[in-house]
Amino acid sequence: MRLSVLGSAASYPGPGHACAGYLVQTSATSVLLDCGNGVLANLGRVIDPVSLGAVVISHGHIDHFADVFALQAALRYAPSGPVPPLPLYLPPGLFDRMEALLGERGGHELREAFRVHEVEPGVRIDVGDLSIVPHAVDHAQSACAFVVTRGDARLCYTGDTQLGDAVRAAARGAGTLLADATLPEEYAGRAPHMTPAEAGELARDAGAHTLLLTHLWPTVDRDRALVDARERFGGRVIVADEQTVLDID
Ligand SMILES: [Zn+2]
Ligand SMILES: [Zn+2]
Question: How far does residue 195's CA lie from ligand 2's centre (Å)?
């Protein structure tokens, strides 16, 4: 399977950086993990949004779902004409909040565009030949990491989380780890996120061969993030950006 990073920024988009969005594809299936601010512009560089098989949202923070509204418009006005509702998996209650924000007509259009499912920890989501298992993590209410598998290929996307037993359980056995690395060292422990060094520790303990650091504030020093992660992890480390494409097998 192939991972294309569509947004590597935490909290807010910056020059050249969108918020959270990760496209996972096989030859038959395309799934978007998170759809934060700016992701739709980068999605269109890789595929036509109408070709998505599903969108799966990790938690109810804006930097992970804001562009679901934009995606709805892209589906509604697709040149290929009306498209069937796209499966959309979100944390419990989030779709109702989104619908309420739009009012009656907009809410109706949002509901028409998607077939809505709730994400439940441990309940597998099958989309084409991809399988996605949500794992509860320590961040916001109902926040999940996702383990995506196809055959022997195994990717763990941590979503947003602090380091702890929950994310360690999710990451165990994943060859490739796509990890929240929001916090520069001087912010360690001040918010429920990981530092690059903690992401490195997680990758080491999980037995991963490849670590992608992501969810970095647009202002942070990405070279330093790389150095910090390498202090605890001897495998391949990549600082994700909007050009990152990785084949996972
Ligand atoms: Zn976030
Ligand atoms: Zn968050």
Answer: 14
80 C-alpha to ligand 1 centroid (Å)? 33
Looking at residues 41-48, what average pLDDT do you find? Answer: 97
Q: What is the chain's mean pLDDT, rounded?
A: 97
Ligand nearest to the CA of 162: 2
pLDDT at 74: 96
Confidence class for position 87, pLDDT limits 50, 70, 90:
very high
Give the phi and the psi of residue 173 in degrees, each rounded to 5: 90, -5
Q: Which fold has domain 2-247?
A: Metallo-beta-lactamase; Chain A (3.60.15)
Say how many Å lie between the CA of residue 41 and the centre of ligand 1. 18
| pTM score, whole prediction | 0.98
Give the DSSP letter string of 118-155. Answer: E--TT--EEETTEEEEEEE-SSSTT-EEEEEEETTEEE
Residue 10 Cα, ligand 1 centroid: separation in angstroms? 5
